[in-house]
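Q: What changes when pyridoxal-5'-phosphate is included in the input?
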Amino acid sequence: MRQPRSGRQFLQIPGPSNLPDQVQRALAQPLIDHRGPEFADLVIGIVERLKRVFGTEADLVLFPSSCTGAWEAALVNTLSPGDLVIGFEQGHFATAWHQLAQRLGLRVEVIAGDARVPPDADQLRERLVADADHAIKAVLLVHNETSTGVCVDVATIRAAIDDASHPAVLLVDAISSLASTNYEHDAWGVDVTIAASQKGLMLPPGLSFNAISAKALAASTSAGLPRSYWDWAPHREVALTGWFPYTPPTSLLKGLHESLNLLFDEGLPNAFDRHRRHGAITRAAVAGWDLETYCRDESAASATVTAVLFPDDVDAEQLRTFMLDEFDLVLGVGLGPLRGRVIRIGHLGGLNDLTLMGTLTGLELGLRTLGFAVPGGVEAAIERALALGPVPAS
Ligand code: PLP
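A: The predicted holo structure follows.
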């Protein structure tokens, strides 16, 4: 059993992210009637504002579930048994989504590639052009692969589909980018955007979302995969009436109301700048330690998570466990093939410069305690923060 510790634990995993005190207080409020007028007003207001975070005026539905449920919802509402879908070798979460699709009875083709850089849009274009009879029904993309720290320019993938004049729907997982990175469901021509509560929205896990284009909605009228809990149809009413088809997570919705207040008070562009800035500061520290980020393309480096790659002869998992035991610093585990190879630093949600500096200092302290000759990562982080100037003001 672990000894009790003084001070607050540093939870710096890439979701669930830290909860601001205002959100914690909202979560602790007394429960309300989910069929009453207060709840209806709360939900209608939430959906209206949440659409701005998704960059959409289209339909937005909310499910009481983790993000995996929203992955499933996107698939079962748009596709039929045996349909062919195409995805990319992006990392652990993309693969998990592909496996889920297979279990639902879809055929999944994966474009092989290097998970350390964004998927190759040209390869997709060529494959779609070759698909003359339009057997491919959907393209599955993870916007920000949380296992690798690589963030994809969604518009390039949309352009590849359009250049090929292909009718496949574009389904995008934006769980670890939404509310932290600019996201444009409508302008980027995304058909279904999938997200959840526990990352940029600064809430506990338990709420997930699908933003739905008119094309995806049309597809849902003929999609043949069985669906009940995940059926969009009764959920589309929620935006107008606040009436869920089953009991919604009322406390999480109270929390979401508060986290949206915080985001809009800060200003979404400022929140995006803050995350970009924290990503840059984190990468400066990694370079200062003479280590590599797993992401090889600086222009695709995630604003919310950095996967730090360790040399082959180092067990990153042992280091991560040491940070937890010694300093109460919780960093993200390496997932799938990256277990033991990377440590992931989450820099998203309710975060400020000092929390980030504390995290980077904790990691440097741990590495030095273990005898690693890491030069000045923290110093480089401070230099980068100074060069970037102050956190954007609201
Ligand atoms: N997609 C991405 C990119 C994720 O980071 C995660 C979880 O971290 C998931 C999907 C799965 O989400 P959940 O665990 O909420 O089902």
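Observations recorded in class: The CA atoms of residues 151 and 282 lie 16 Å apart.
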